[in-house]
Design a protein that fits this description.
The complex is a heterotrimer.
Chain A lengths: L1 E5 L4 E5 L1 H23 L7 H9 L7 H35 L7 H4 L1 H16 L3 H23 L6 H25 L2 H11 L8 H28 L3 H6 L4 H23 L5 H13 L6 H21 L8 H24 L1
Antiparallel strand pairs in A: 1-2
Helix pairs in contact in A: 1-3, 1-13, 2-3, 3-9, 3-11, 3-12, 3-13, 5-6, 5-7, 5-8, 5-11, 6-7, 6-11, 7-8, 9-11, 12-13, 13-14
Chain B lengths: L21 E12 L2 E12 L3 E5 L6 H8 L7 E6 L2 E2 L5 H7 E4 L11 H7 L13 H13 L15 H14 L4 E5 L7 H16 L3 E5 L3 H7 L2 E6 L2 E6 L1 H4 L2 H8 L3 E5 L6 E5 L26
Parallel strand pairs in B: 3-8, 3-9, 6-7, 7-8
Antiparallel strand pairs in B: 1-2, 1-4, 4-5, 9-10, 11-12
Chain C lengths: L5 H26 L7 H10 L6 H40 L11 H14 L6 H24 L5 H25 L1 H7 L15 H25 L3 H6 L4 H23 L5 H13 L3 H26 L7 H19 L6
Helix pairs in contact in C: 1-3, 1-12, 2-3, 3-8, 3-10, 3-11, 3-12, 4-5, 4-6, 4-10, 5-6, 5-10, 6-7, 8-10, 11-12, 12-13
Classes of the chains: A mainly alpha, B alpha/beta, C mainly alpha.
Chain lengths: 345, 301, 342
């Protein structure tokens, strides 16, 4: 194992060459996806003009084209990247917390909680962004608190957390169905669309919220990284090695939930990215530590790809991105379950 | 393999000055899990630099007691003392440099290599920035050499055999450089050859001056290697002391409910438990002489 | 196999008590609503038909009772019985106490096919949508049973598989509904799981199908008992594992498909009812089935009555009431012990 050592040994970090290679590859895929999403779309704009707009040269571009590139495509791209990153990181955090490769925040129910909060706000008070964001954040945190409380039994056990989460999710589903049936058709359709997780119509105010989230959570996660890594040998051995396990788990839970809230506010409840991204990151890079950053990068890749597919596959109708992730992700989860079982059977 | 003396104040074994008193002690400790108290009001002493083995039937409290000693379980009553200080009041990081426990079925993170796993044992000495110094690397290699696993350093842990893996786990706790090692059933899933390998390793670690507390199922192996044995049953201590005092027919009956004869192990001179004649062999023939097991295959007609 | 001699007696008493409760609730169901009908009036109308009512108000009562309340009550009983039985069977076949048609994705499958039937084929007839629902339920069930057939699957993994299936299927359903907003409008009331405003023509076909399914279930009940011991043991006891499982799966599909087509997707009945039935009946599948039928009817009817009673002139759908009862139970079960020992 190689190490990166700086400042006369005051800083020393273990480094895996393969991980670096994989991350660089992922960044290339991201660039490719970004290009596709900026340069293609329902309204076709010449590549030359798009490039011009992006670097600030508006000559030859109509106001509509400028608007499309700068106020529709670009914020959508940024939102997809940030939301995907948030989902990937939160997925990795929760998988470590539940000590279970299937413990992802959308399955446990935090995503559902945020979604319910947002839907309730949308259906009662209209779909203004700030209101929806507040609703999502509140819904997510309240649900998270509820699930933790219910699953707590002198400690946070992974299995119990998942099962309690599924129960709570079911109740929330009933609440959402109720809300949708009471609203008028337009609100309900908008609600359903939002619930499916969509990046349509994301603007720079969404990006602003995402940026705030990123600025607060990134350093918090970096500080948490070591604890997460130490937990991966199991809580008994980690305690023997001097980690305050209960405190670490609560910190991980809070930061993980916050990342989920950011993702839900920016992109609606999108399922399975949080589940798949950490797995893909880990199996490609064969990293044994907690692949938080690489999970985030792969989350961004997955969501961007899903978004591109959602836009193009039934063009000109735009499918919500969440539908693509649900269909593909659900199949992925089933495959994963089969593989895990064969491993233990 | 000769049994080491009970109270090991013999300074010729290592260069460290002999510590006074017990390495670990329990005073009136009650311990258990939510809704279930396993141990009540227990008093226990682990002498410094001893090789203590806990024995007892399933669910008798020996693993629970070990976890209490390792601070994995907090006592609801009483106190656990580490070198005379109350364990509950010490800082976790400090405790991790003095005592460590290897749990029964430790989990290796997926696709981790041996070197990376043993490096985890250095965690109590690392910080956010200082994560893998040259000193750490040296200690990792040393720990692997002590267990004879140096050549495995770059192999994925998942590919190792049971015996190899157990030795690697012992390297992990060795890298933590504690004076006291607690091992929860380190030999339970190993075949005979690997059981002996691991226990020989423990004996070497003990000879280097460490205090070991190990939970074992095999009474005879326990008698061979331990300096002290503690027998548990139903959450109480049935007997404690050197093997010769503890491994008796009476203790075995009280602890396991099994009738036996205790003879002498011809290879090590330690007590050897021979369970009573099984019913399917019929009545005992007079030629079996319990004091001379080497000749038990001879049956006088 | 009674563990004590108390069990058979308790079973019979509980069964009798449940039947009594069912009758009482049925009466209440007929009386409660935006237009409350008094007990004497209700009894008179029930025993003598509309002719037994007195006066104009009485006649309206009679119409309401016979054309709205009685079919609704009957539907609640039938749907509840179907879901209870389906839950008991699926739990026995998957050897998993957490299996519930809603949680393991069967409802999602049924919903998808109903939505497809409405949207793509424009069907709205009762039998057509019920048939579509059954087909969807069957496919979802097959997926789940295949997953749990090989070796023992932990409760957690099965629930996760069901969640995965429900999510995938739900995603496709959402996609269809977003693209086709007429279908959405037709379907969004139905997706709540309610007995309100259902077509009274549903009752007889549903009753017929459920009765058939009940017969099939009773026929294989003993063999399902042996399945609980594991495939190898079951085979050595002479049970044809494949055939028993197939019949059970088809039966569950018929039950779930019918229930879903009639009342929309309702979750947790299939979870809570067998749990209660097992607590009373032990491990005898025949008794578990019988009690599940009765408890299921009770639960559904109670949820419907409560939904009507507490919401004043509006009403709270039965599916939601059941979720609020069932989900806490699910959570309590998950908390109770180490999950592997469930």
């Amino acid at each position: 194992m190689s190490a990166l050592r700086l400042f006369g040994e005051r800083v020393s970090l273990p480094v895996r060459r393969r991980l670096v290679v994989v991350l660089v590859g992922a960044v290339f895929v991201l660039l490719g996806g970004a290009l596709v999403s900026l340069y293609t779309g329902n309204s076709s704009i010449e590549a030359k003009i798009t490039t011009g707009i992006l670097i600030g040269d508006y000559a030859g571009a109509s106001p509509f084209e400028v608007f499309t590139v700068l106020d529709v495509r670009l914020p959508r791209l940024v939102c997809a990247l940030v939301a995907g990153f948030a989902l990937g990181v939160s997925g990795a955090l929760f998988q470590e917390l539940t000590e279970n490769p299937l413990g992802s925040p959308d399955i446990i129910g935090f995503t559902g909680g945020a979604a319910t909060g947002a839907v309730l706000v949308t259906v009662t008070a209209g779909g203004a962004l700030v209101g929806t964001a507040a609703g999502a954040l509140t819904g997510g945190l309240v649900t998270a608190a509820l699930i933790y409380l219910l699953a707590w039994r002198s400690g946070l056990d992974g299995y119990r957390l998942i099962l309690v989460g599924i129960g709570v999710t079911a109740v929330l589903g009933a609440v959402r169905a109720y809300a949708l049936s009471r609203a008028d058709l337009e609100q309900a359709t908008a609600g359903l669309r939002w619930l499916s997780g969509s990046l349509t119509g994301r603007g720079w105010d969404d990006v602003a919220i995402a940026a705030i989230g990123l600025v607060i959570l990134a350093p918090a996660t970096a500080a948490l990284h070591r604890s997460v890594s130490r937990l991966s040998v199991g809580s008994d051995l980690a305690t023997s090695q001097g980690l305050d396990v209960p405190r670490a788990r609560i910190a991980i839970a809070v930061v993980g939930t916050a990342w989920v809230a950011v993702a839900v506010v920016v992109a609606g409840p999108i399922s399975f990215v949080a589940l798949a991204a950490p797995h893909i990151a880990r199996s490609l890079s064969r990293a044994s530590g907690a692949p938080l950053f690489s999970a985030g990068v792969f989350g961004a890749v997955l969501l961007l790809l899903a978004d591109v597919v959602a836009l193009r596959v039934f063009s000109p109708t735009q499918l919500p991105t969440g539908v693509v992730t649900a269909v593909v992700g659900g199949a992925y989860l089933l495959w994963l379950l089969q593989r895990l079982r064969r491993g233990t059977a | 393999m000769t049994a080491l003396p009970h109270e090991s104040r013999d300074s010729s074994l290592s260069s460290a000055p002999p510590p006074a008193g017990d390495a670990l002690a329990m005073r009136g400790v009650s311990l258990g899990y939510p809704g279930r108290t396993v141990i009540e009001d227990l008093d226990l002493r682990i002498c410094a630099r001893s090789f203590t083995v806990f024995i007892g039937p399933n669910a008798c409290g020996k693993s629970t007691a070990l976890k209490g000693l390792g601070r994995l379980l907090a006592p609801s009553k009483g106190a656990v003392l580490l070198n005379g200080r109350d364990l509950a009041r010490l800082k976790t990081a400090q405790v991790a440099r003095e005592i460590t426990m290897l749990p029964q079925s430790p989990i290796a993170p997926p696709s981790v290599t041996v070197g990376e796993l043993v490096a985890r044992g250095r965690a109590p000495y690392q910080s956010v920035f200082r994560r893998y110094s040259r000193e750490d690397e040296r200690i990792v290699r040393e720990s692997l050499e002590v267990t004879g696993s140096a050549d495995l350093i770059d192999r994925p842990v998942a590919e190792l055999s049971g015996g190899q893996r157990q030795r690697v786990w012992i390297s992990v706790v060795l890298a933590q450089q504690t004076g006291i090692l607690l091992l929860d059933e380190p030999t339970t899933y190993l075949d005979l050859a690997h059981q002996i390998e691991v226990l020989d390793l423990c004996a070497r670690l003990h000879a280097d001056g460490r205090t070991l507390v190990v939970v074992l199922h095999d009474l005879n192996l326990a008698a061979r290697y331990a300096t002290d044995i503690v027998a548990f049953a139903d959450g109480r201590i049935v007997a404690e002391g050197p093997p010769a005092d503890v491994i008796t027919a009476r203790t075995v009956r009280e602890t396991f409910g099994v009738e036996c004869t205790v003879t002498t192990d011809p290879a090590s001179g330690t007590p050897l438990v021979v369970p009573a004649r099984p019913p399917h062999l019929g009545a005992a023939t007079p030629s079996i002489r319990p004091t001379d097991p080497l000749h038990s295959s001879e049956r006088t007609p | 196999m009674p563990i004590g001699s108390r069990r058979p007696r308790i079973r019979r008493r509980v069964f009798a008590g449940a039947i009594v409760a069912l009758v009482v609730l049925a009466l209440m169901s007929v009386m409660v609503g935006p237009r409350p009908i008094s007990l004497e009036s209700a009894l008179a109308i029930l025993s003598e038909g509309v002719a037994g009512s007195s006066g104009a108000a009485g006649r309206v009562d009679g119409v309401v009772l016979w054309s709205l309340r009685v079919p609704r009550t009957a539907l609640a009983v039938v749907v509840g019985a179907a879901l209870g039985m389906a839950g008991a069977l699926i739990q026995a076949v998957t050897r998993n106490p957490l299996a519930d048609p809603g949680i393991i994705g069967v409802n999602a499958g049924a919903s998808l096919f109903v939505v497809l039937a409405v949207s793509v084929f424009g069907w709205s007839g009762v039998l057509a949508t019920a048939g579509a629902g059954m087909l969807g339920a069957l496919l979802a069930l097959l997926a789940i049973v295949v997953l749990s057939a090989r070796g023992r699957m932990s409760p957690l993994v099965l629930v996760l598989a069901g969640t995965a299936l429900a999510a995938t299927v739900g995603g496709v359903t959402s996609a269809v509904l977003i693209v086709d907003s007429d279908a959405f409008d037709q379907v969004r009331f139905w997706t709540v799981g309610s007995l309100a405003g259902r077509d009274p023509d549903l009752v007889w076909p549903a009753l017929g199908l459920v009765a058939l399914a009940a017969l099939a279930a009773t026929a294989i009940a003993v063999r399902v008992n042996t399945l609980a011991l594991g495939e190898d043991m079951a085979r050595s006891l002479g049970t044809s594992v494949v055939r028993t499982r197939t019949i059970a799966v088809i039966t569950v599909a018929v039950l779930c498909g019918t229930a879903t087509a009639a009342a929309g997707p309702i979750a947790f009945v299939g979870l809570t009812v067998p749990f209660a039935a097992r607590a009373v009946a032990g491990t005898d599948t025949r008794w578990i089935l019988t009690l599940s039928i009765v408890f299921g009817a009770l639960l559904m009817l109670a949820a419907d009555v409560v939904g009507r009673a507490i919401a004043g002139t509006g009403e709270l759908e039965a599916g939601i009431v059941v979720a609020f009862v069932g989900a806490p139970l699910f959570i309590w079960m998950a908390r109770r012990r180490s999950v592997e020992h469930l």
